[in-house]
Write a structure and sequence with these properties.
Length: about 230
Amino acid sequence: MLNDLLTQLAAKGPFSYVQFGGNDGVLADPLWPFLRDGGDRHVAAGHVFEPNPVYFERLVRNLGKFAQITCHNCAIGSEGGPAEQALYFIHPDDVTTHNLPRWTMGLCSFYDDKNALGGVGSPQAAALYETIKPFIRKVDVPCRSLAEALEEIGVSGCDLLLSDAEGHDWEILRQWDVERFGRPAIIHAEIVCLNEAERSDMLAWFDTHRYHASIEGQNVTAQRID
């Protein structure tokens, strides 16, 4: 569904996007196939946030060839929250050395109780938890509120908003002030790691702000209703 919407968006002209939780820009990234296959020519500007310094280095390396895309080593925290916060993750060196599933490189989160870092979310995550537990690391990362982060880089809105924050996605979306930053044409966010109340609040947000939202697998894709 997302690829079809991206094609429709690109047909209207160059678009801008903001992405939170960019990881390395390739692994399980919903936008990577589009960029890889030449879709970057339809991107006017992209801003990708990745707080983990290990994966940020890889992100810059992978997306550096796209001049219109800028990477930011910063996390979106809570409004009024701390300027620095602990992030839990699996280091890529441990994935290689200890033969862990490649997808565990996508596990970077403020939470160790809402996703596979705590054995939560699926039978697969629960079964794998004891295997990855010895390799869970922690790093302190800089945080900004969403408004502060966008103001710092001079972004007042976008056509496409993406979030893959392993349980922090509703906290990010709830800070998106449509009066200030507009209504993105498409929003694609991870929903699988949210609790029941957060899922309900996220879907209600889409309804309130006139979006048609569809859940597919671990994510929700919402299209603006004009």
